[in-house]
Amino acid sequence: MSIGQSIPRVDAFEKVTGRAKYTADLTDRNALVAKVLHSTIANGLVRKIDTGEAEKIPGVIKILSCFDVPDIEFPTAGHPWSTNPAHQDPTDRKLLNKRVRLYGDDIAAVIAEDEVAASRALNAIKVEYDEYPALLSPEEAMAEGAPLLHENCPNNILKHTLIEDGDFEEAIREPGLLRFDSVYETPIVQHCHIEPVVSFAYMEAGRIVVVSSTQIPHIVRRIVAQALGLPWGKVRIIKPYIGGGFGNKQDALYEPLNAFLTQAVGGRPVRLELSREEIFYATRVRHAEKIFLSSWVRPNGRIVARSYRALSNQGAYGSHGHGIAAKGTNVFRQLYQDEKARKTEFFTVYTNTATAGAMRGYGTPQALFAVESHIEELSLRLGLDPLEFRFMNVMPVGWQDPFTKNINYFDSFHQCVEKGRAYIGWDEKRKLYRNQNGPLRRGIGMSLFWYNTAVWPISIEISACRMILNQDGSVQVQLGETEIGQGADTVFTQLTADTLGIPWQNVHVNSTQDTDITPYGSGAYGSRQTYVGGAAIKQTASLLKQKILLYAHEYTRMPVENLDIIDAVIVLTSGNNRPLMSLAELATETLYSEQKAEHLTAEGTAQVKTNAFSFGCSFAEIEVDIPMAKLRLLNLINVHDAGRIINPQTAGGQVHGGMSMSIGYGMFEEFKYDPKTGRLLNGNFLDYKLPTTLDHPRLEAQFVENWEPTSVFGTKALGEPPAVPCAPAIRNALLNATGVAVNRIPLTPHVLFEEFKKAGLIN
Amino acid sequence: MSIGQSIPRVDAFEKVTGRAKYTADLTDRNALVAKVLHSTIANGLVRKIDTGEAEKIPGVIKILSCFDVPDIEFPTAGHPWSTNPAHQDPTDRKLLNKRVRLYGDDIAAVIAEDEVAASRALNAIKVEYDEYPALLSPEEAMAEGAPLLHENCPNNILKHTLIEDGDFEEAIREPGLLRFDSVYETPIVQHCHIEPVVSFAYMEAGRIVVVSSTQIPHIVRRIVAQALGLPWGKVRIIKPYIGGGFGNKQDALYEPLNAFLTQAVGGRPVRLELSREEIFYATRVRHAEKIFLSSWVRPNGRIVARSYRALSNQGAYGSHGHGIAAKGTNVFRQLYQDEKARKTEFFTVYTNTATAGAMRGYGTPQALFAVESHIEELSLRLGLDPLEFRFMNVMPVGWQDPFTKNINYFDSFHQCVEKGRAYIGWDEKRKLYRNQNGPLRRGIGMSLFWYNTAVWPISIEISACRMILNQDGSVQVQLGETEIGQGADTVFTQLTADTLGIPWQNVHVNSTQDTDITPYGSGAYGSRQTYVGGAAIKQTASLLKQKILLYAHEYTRMPVENLDIIDAVIVLTSGNNRPLMSLAELATETLYSEQKAEHLTAEGTAQVKTNAFSFGCSFAEIEVDIPMAKLRLLNLINVHDAGRIINPQTAGGQVHGGMSMSIGYGMFEEFKYDPKTGRLLNGNFLDYKLPTTLDHPRLEAQFVENWEPTSVFGTKALGEPPAVPCAPAIRNALLNATGVAVNRIPLTPHVLFEEFKKAGLIN
To answer: What value of ipTM does the predicted structure carry?
Structure first.
């Protein structure tokens, strides 16, 4: 059995030696180069575009502007299509936009022979605008009289939801309750995948082919067709290896425009690669949220009622929209359970900042920062131990979510916390770090977390798979689920090998998705791939095995029920697993049989109608230099119950990467806009501070393996959860060290200086 | 219905605009370049290879010689594997050969950074040989004391077969029989495909990938693995568009060596492209044959018995070997039927000329030249009309071949001859051209032909297919059967469209075969693809349709038996074909259904255990300039009964191309060797005379459509037959014009001068 073993990544050699081919490597040598002209105002209207001078530049092939594109508004979010209009994503942008909604909106595109000609042409295009004031926050955008970004959205509110569980007004009238209010703010941050947003497109027999660095090839196919007004079968998307996505590439970014551009030049290949700067302002970001939390608690620590009000900054276009803020509210509504009632309200609001979309955690990092900061303060104010206080109110074992039907089967929270508590030395250090008063102080803090696995019942969850038996008994696997650097192909290899009873070395996962031939899978998002793709693998491998054993029955005459495959050999289970014939022999005979030849393959679609809770916690230890207003991270552990762990090494890698993102989120990263023009000021790797190894302590990842009952292989979400809990754990450690409750991230010296001053720690 | 319509070739636009990607277009820009060192003797042993100087040349990466290759002898013929050793192809060559068997044998290979370094290195390698005399004909090779090319083949005979039908000795004793003997000789010729033999190879995750211009990707996969001693699943072959093959690429040519070379440099990409000169001497050719024919005939024209003895020149290595001569003998044994008995004997003999393999017609052009020349002379000598004489002895309607079980269902020969006779003006011109005696004389001649379809029961005949329903109701098709320029993808498109009931524009055949994911198909040879691939398409499309109609039943509640698809709409057949829903709606709903979602695909293997006769004839009119000994072709028609014609235009194209090849075979082409050294003297397009449009009259192609009863779509062989009958028709026209029976081709002025002199037409 390979499951549970740290087999080497199946793509390791290719990637380490630089041989793995990415989109840019595959681009036709003769491809034309496209570049996008971005608006230099944040809010307004393009009145006129003069391309006269630009068109004269040698090497310029064609210039297309927002006045030339089809009058089609299309969605970009990477969700499977729903035939129910109520479940469809916002359709609010064209291929190029006359109505400018962010500084850097796409208003024209140049196609040229080379980069230089394209760049020169961009500089030579003259644009005239009508300019409106830049609306950079939900509050500004919702204000009376603010210009509307999208006509059908009054007050620039894309969507507003209010949910009341229980009788809230009645609940808070209970005598003796203590009330706590706080407001939390999270920044706009970016995914910062290494490989840029890049694609190239060409036409083939009247159809458009886009090769793209995307997480969701099958979905991008649909969106490109929608954007261009084509039948969906007229579009083909190919996804090679990709260098990270983290949710940014769970959107159709520039594939639709790239498709349109090749169409405009009769199908000649056109490459569209964004610079790092463009990626910052013109792709997707994580929604900044402002969250108002209030709690009504009994003095003994039982929470009776809470209210939550969030303003989610959508930026210029709809993308994943309201679903992100909605998913965040699940943290509020489920992680801790109010005894009586709960009020949840959230607004997703268009502004003139970068379009917010999916990013690892999908609304949860924001909400969890608020919820876990708030719970920590409550415990302090109540004089209760933060762990005890949490467990008094946390989702109980056996609880079932009425919407997803998820059940909290095990006592995962306690099990995870025990591991984290032991590793960090919680009990000793909580004592040790009491009553510090020097300039350097230490603290420890923690955060629980919770996450869903896959997206049912919000969207359909299907994954199709095809397997092919080679003549040597090895197997090819095709899945629509995508390797995006996370190690999916390695895990798929293990699941296939064990289901079929063959060594993992005999499984070859076809890593390239090509919508012309790859079975449908929604792609890499929602921490769904091992859970949903695993179901497809189990179903398909079982079907293939059944076909194999029927042939084995023909060849060996033994009852099919008494046969099995162990280590690539057909064995007689009723006879001490006596070997009967090798799978290789069977495969060769079956393909070339004069009697009945068959190319043995299996294919099918698995539909998953469950969802599962992943759980865990993060513990952080920090040191703060109060005069310097500077934080140093000393120690960090994440403990995950992600169900059964298929590959401990790649699982650890997932957790390390997520912890790093969460450190950046808590301590370093944020978009800074010029408040007047709406121009992004730090959209590059010099000014936007990503954490590096120098900012990381040893990242400890531990697991609790409660095999998930709803999952074919006992697995559940691991892709996104690691990126969620570290920021609040660090923030709570700071509170522990200093007594200062900082309610906004990142915890940069600028913020700490202000907060320490306010608290009297700095004069 | 699209069948029977000349829909445009589905690859026309790509190919005409130069956009279609061939192997060379796809080669990695950084690929290393490999070149092969060919022997400069025809027969002998490599004693020593000194690569010292060559290795010092800058840019040279590695040099491998016949002393470095695995000790594995492998087969190269493009046949499906047989698990029965008696049906396996000769295994008689290594990747590089110490034992040199032709002038130009592969003895070493250079891998370098670029072409220049590789070429310089080739020149700097020093080789010492033991040289034996060059054996250039079967007679020389079979002579007592001739050195053996392959140790296990006494007298250099690869294989010898003798078949007696009836009691031959008894039959020829019948009193009053007239006996006629003659000897026919056909030349070595080459396929002369436009695209060279080219491949590139690299390694990926421990497996070898070869991208190659081949007709038979799935077979090449097996051979590469055999040659390198690898499990077959460790090899992946990708076949892009190819620029012709005609049987040369129905062999594993340099793919095994290319695979070995990338392995030798740790999997770096290596390109191996042959020059035109190398293709001539070092790939495959058509077997030259010398055929001894004798007939015993009653004066009334009934043939009583015949004997056939053929020497087939195999050249240096086994390749397709004895099967080619064997297939030729079917012409002798089946086209005309002896009343009493028949003796058939044939030898396939190794010599030191180019390796002979498959070429369009597969042994039939040689045998048919002999048989149809012989029958023509017999009719003359008997004073009978050649058409009447033929029909007196030709395979009768209703006759069944006891081996293949093929039946001659229709009176195709008469039907075809009537068309040819009318078009060429046979009756008038046979009269008109009597008793000519000027220097310019005209004549008409004809030839019947017969050909098998596909290769059962010689080999297994299987073809697997997969179809995928796109969300817009269009369909992807994957087949192992290969488009090699003949129009297969267009025909596959039509067959799929009509079976499913959708417009052909909604069918997208995936033209690239990739053995990792493409269903198994043996590939393009044996005129099998429409017949066998058609069966796979019918089976798969029917299965897909059945799945579609079951969903249609779910959505419409109508009985599935009352539903059909017409023009991409689900209709109620019992209700006047009332439209119920579009296939596009059904496809979208089925993929995204919350209740039961499925990516609708279908896949399966069709095994064909029949074979079918194709029939036809060729009529030629020529003018001969006797003093100049020069032939001019005035008029040429082929009439084919290839069953139902799927696409008249592409069918006509097939016939035109074949006629052109047969003209070259009859009039221009032959390999000329230096008799002493065995060096090919005319292996280039300057000295090897391919016919051009200037040598062609209008090529008339006509069809008789007797739908083949054994065929799923009524089709039978059309790929190869056109290349078979023109040479004897032209030769018989020359006989008609001059009375001179020339028994060897090509009919060049050199030959005609000699023959006319012998006949006293030239002094």
So the answer is: 0.95
